[in-house]
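STRUCTURE:
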C-alpha cells in the first residue's frame, strides 16, 4: 500500500511540465528557508546552550538534563517546547523539498542512456533518503517530548534512542544530498554523451 502511494505521488509529479516542476521546487525551497528561519530564531530564543547537532548527538541522559536545567534556570524551557512544534513544520518542508528536488534531478537525466538511467535512479534515491531522514527527525522529536516530560530524570535508554534517531537522520540526509549531486552529475554526463553520439552520426 505504501509503495503504491509513493508511486502515485511520483507519477503525479512526473506528469507536471518541467517548468511547473521547477517552479514548484523553487517555491518549496522558499518555504523551507522561511520555516528554517523561524526554527533557528526560536531555537536561539530558547537559550539551548549548544547547537542542534551537539545537543542531539549527546547520547548521555545526564548531559541532556544539564541542557534542560540551563533553560529551566533561564526561564526559557517553554520556548524550547514551542521550538519542537515548529520543527514538525520544518520536517514537513524537508520531505516536500526532498521529493521535488529528487524527482527534478531524476527527470534531468531523462533515462536517455545508461548514464541517464543512473541519474534517474540516484534522483529517486535522493527523494527516498530525504523523506526517510525527515521521518527519523520526526521520531527524534517525539522522543524529545518524552524527555522533556521527565526533564529532571531522563532514562539513559531514552537518551540513547533519541540520539540514535538523530544520528540516523543526519546520515540519511547527508546521503540524500550526495545522491542528489551525483544524480545531477550523471544526468549532465548522459546529456553530453547523447549529444556527442548524435554529432557523430
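SEQUENCE:
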Amino acid at each position: 500500500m505504501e509503495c503504491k502511494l509513493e508511486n502515485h505521488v511520483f507519477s503525479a509529479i512526473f506528469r507536471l511540465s518541467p517548468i511547473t516542476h521547477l517552479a514548484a521546487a523553487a517555491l518549496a525551497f522558499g518555504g523551507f528557508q522561511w520555516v528554517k528561519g523561524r526554527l533557528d530564531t526560536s531555537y536561539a530564543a530558547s537559550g539551548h546552550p549548544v547547537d542542534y547537532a551537539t545537543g542531539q548527538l549527546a547520547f548521555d541522559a545526564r548531559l541532556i538534563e544539564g541542557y534542560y536545567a540551563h533553560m529551566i534556570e533561564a526561564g526559557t524551557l517553554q520556548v524550547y517546547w514551542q521550538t519542537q512544534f515548529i520543527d514538525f513544520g520544518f520536517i514537513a518542508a524537508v520531505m516536500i523539498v526532498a521529493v521535488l528536488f529528487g524527482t527534478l534531478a531524476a527527470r534531468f537525466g531523462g533515462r536517455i542512456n545508461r548514464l541517464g538511467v543512473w541519474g534517474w535512479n540516484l534522483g529517486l534515491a535522493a527523494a527516498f533518503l530525504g523523506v526517510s531522514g525527515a521521518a527519523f527527525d520526526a521520531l527524534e522529536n517525539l522522543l524529545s517530548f518524552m524527555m522533556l516530560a521527565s526533564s529532571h530524570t531522563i532514562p539513559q535508554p531514552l537518551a540513547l534512542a533519541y540520539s540514535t534517531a538523530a544520528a540516523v537522520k543526519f546520515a540519511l540526509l547527508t546521503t540524500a544530498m550526495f545522491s542528489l549531486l551525483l544524480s545531477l552529475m550523471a544526468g549532465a554526463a548522459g546529456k553530453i554523451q547523447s549529444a556527442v553520439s548524435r554529432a557523430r552520426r
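REMARK: The mean pLDDT is 94.
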